[in-house]
Fold:
Amino acid sequence: MDSLDLQVLMQARDWFVQGHKVWLVTVIETWGSAPRPPGALLCLRDDGQVAGSVSGGCVEDDLIDRLRHGERVATPSLIAYGVTKEEAARFGLPCGGNLRLVQEPLQGVGWIDEVLARTARHELVARHLSLATGAVTVEAARRGDVFEFDGSSLRALFGPRWRLLIIGAGQLSRAVAQMALALDFEVICCDPREEYNLTWDVPNTTFSKAMPDDLVIELQLDPHCAVVAVTHDPKLDDLVLLEALKSPAFYIGALGSRGNTAARRARLEMFDLSPAEIDRLHGPIGLDIGAKTPAEIAVAIVAEIVAVKNGVLLTQKKVGSAVPGMRAVSRAS
Structure:
């Protein structure tokens, strides 16, 4: 699945090509419990149609009302909501939240085509907008980059900032991959077994028949990477763990019962891994939600990955897990 912001760009491009005037609206700053983060996008069509969101709905309604009453900016302009407590309540900004936006007229779609083409190749790119001129440029970005606004220009990111490596191409892997794609992860599946790699058919993912340990070394895992080993074959799962546990990947998990996890830890202790590195292993993998089916297990796995990414408390862990309920501190910034 494409990210919401990429879908907004696609819609904006299509409307523009059809001959409509289009405005892009970008969240640039928030205070309090604002509903959407900096970089979130919305596009407005000249007849009031809208795609995307910057709030829970009331701000969108006001933007449409402004457009229909003739407020059609010709250059990038700043808009602020929730400056007062009363206005915050009016626009549905909880806890006195505030929201600042940049509204810009779409002057061409060349840069959108470039963003869509490069993100389709799993590239992470940045769009730079000059508020003074409305000029837009697209450049390569890095995983550690964040949305930036300095008062005169903004730099917004598009593409997969997070990467998930799945070892194994079975039914569970398909469910995990689909959920991760919906969360804007770049997904790579690795399985050297021919009976599995011939049937991998999840769109918008990358497939590798390499040996898992070789692929981990090739990918040079960084703090924005997660690894899940779900083949149930120790020869493959252990191979990837031996390399992944030494990497800065923010999450590393392996499928298996508590007994299998204990046996796996004992095997890992026979190699050149420190106790601290082995303790990074999440096993049994996933949060304890009573999962039985592949789809439910995938929910548990992806939920744990998101929790660790966001640095929140892992309260739903089985007793005796290798990584017990604890504050999950992600290495990723």
Q: What stands out?
A: The chain has a mean pLDDT of 87. The first strand starts at residue 22 and ends at 31.
